[in-house]
Fold:
Amino acid sequence: MSAHAPSAGRVPAPAQYAEIAVPGAAIGLVAGVFAAGVAALAGLPGVQIATIATGLGIPLALLGAGYCVLLATGRFGVGAVGPVALYWLVGFPLARLIDEVAVAGVLGHDDVLRDPLLSFLAFQALLSIGFAIGFLWLHERLAPHWYHRIQRHNTAAADLMRRYIGQAAAMEERRAAAGRGRRRGGS
Amino acid sequence: MDSSDINSDRPLGRDDLTGTETPPARVPAQRGPVPAESGAAAGGGPGGAGETPAPEQERFWKAGRLEPMPIRPLPKAPPSIHLLGPTVFLVALGVGMGESYMWPRLVLIFGPEIRWLFLIGVTLQAVVMLEMSRYAMATGESIFFGAARVFKPLMWFFFVTAILVYIWPGHLSAGASAFERVTGIPWQATAVTGMLLVGVVFTLAKVVYNLLENVLSICIGLLVVGTSVVAAMVGSLSDLSTTLTGMFAFGYLPDEALSPAWFPVIVGSIAFAGPSGMQQMWYTLHLRDKGAGMGSHIPRIRGLRHAEEQETMPSRGFMFDTSDPAEMSKWKGWRRWVTFDAFVLFWGITMLVTVSFTVLAQASARFDPQVATVIRDGERDAALDAMAASFTAAGSPVFGTIFFLFISLIGLNATLGLFDSFSRGQADMTYFFVPGARRFSMSKLYGFFLWGLIAFGIVILLFGPADGPAAILDTLAFLSTFAMGAYCVTLLLVNNLTLPKPIRPGILPNVLIACAAVFYLGMLFYSLFAYGVVVS
Structure:
């Protein structure tokens, strides 16, 4: 994990973090709306569609936003797969559980889950790896454009952009150093 | 041949920078204008305006009888922790009917244990991908050019095969049909509109590669996130665990799988595990356009509207100085970069999507045990309907809709990727090997093949069978699988005969590629001679 927290004199306002959270929140929301859209095309009742959209979309959006904030505060490394996978290992089953509870509650079902809770959570946790990869794939594709766009008025975004650039430069330097070390060792 | 074949042992010239003199690193996506060629000294390149002064004495790498490759510096590799590369095209092309339909169908009929064959198929494809990239990144040339360096008719075989197999808009019609089932919009209208849209967008794009990478990346991201969410909603832990453990049931082949009805289907499914036909060969063109390795010395293809801005294409690729340890260090960086792509992105995402689809299929079978019987007898379209119907019967209308929506998305991905790849590959071979073709720019040739494909596709969609006349369907299926065996043999020849020794493949990759050739060709001919049926 990186230690690139914003410097003390330029602590961003909550609004700045909210702006930074947009890409992650959007991806989470799209995932939830995707499920609701499929349900709508399938002709499910409106109340069920709305419940899926909110019950799944909002938790995923909040968790997606949380990822961006943790990234901006330096708790996650830029583009690092491991921490994101761990994050969604907990977050994805939680979001799905909220979704199932919401749907059962709205539709008045007695049984909230088809499977025992532990089996349900284990299954969701395993599939969370796929979700994490897809999330990161989309985030890395979209977020840098957004941060580049807002960095002029958002110091936290500017700091994040510097980290994106700095990470690439640092990796190049490490690689060059490793290459020099290998050559010395080999001679 | 080895590094000593480079035709001069003078100190490296101005253009032949070594590690300490390497220009500032650029990741491929950020690369600037293409370095101009030193065509005069190279003896035959068309050259272009704004060339840098040529070194007094050019150094070359001789490979085959074609024009030697001038020695140029290898750019530094980007960090291997990245998420997007040319693999996006292979994933887009690879995650198709095989992953979404053929393998889930086999699982429903033979059980999840049959997936060990899928594991082998995708893993072999990842190795093929790595070996394809070896030649493309070392030279900036496509594998077609490499084949021509070994034996020109070999390249013409692929040129003709590409036309025979890929001009039929079958992929698009499958996706459009699925879309019709969800929305009610006639599939011909969707397919024709889709083709025209693809043509217009690619024509207007300044740099085709950048546009396509962006669009496909978003599509694949949505596909991965979407399949994960949907599988999480309808599957269960037991579906997932049997799907995963089935991948390691090596050797499982029930008697029915060896029947004339199913063995050709299994061969076809293995061939369609990941990218099939010539898609791996086209990947080398995307590597070049991405600027991977020595591809950074080659201009990128521009859309037809910007064809006049197209830089002059060199008449051949380039080679780096493999006797220079600094250059070899950079080469290892590129190999790490592409290995990450092959195993984390290509292998991982292909596996992920097919696992999700198999979980969906298992969920439907759990609710409706008759699904296998329904699917067993159907033709493709009938079986697609049966699968969707079984999904619907299994839970709710959501299941069937999901299935068709994903097929639509996959059809769109495949169409974008295939249209671009076909045009790119044919333009590449035409530009370099058809006499007189160089008076057109690569962009114009690309546009010619793209719009030719679209025009033919529209005519066929409106007036003919989308997959091609029934009489030649078997031939096309045979050619598609045969091309895969043939490109493995081509790879072995190209990598071992035309590359300098220090960067040739080791014994393990060679053995694996040879095994892949035997695997594809062996099963194809076994199917043909033992059952009298080609793959289906």
Observations:
- Chain A has a mean pLDDT of 80.
- Chain A has one domain: 14-179.
- Chain A has six helices and no strands.
- The radius of gyration of chain A is 20 Å.
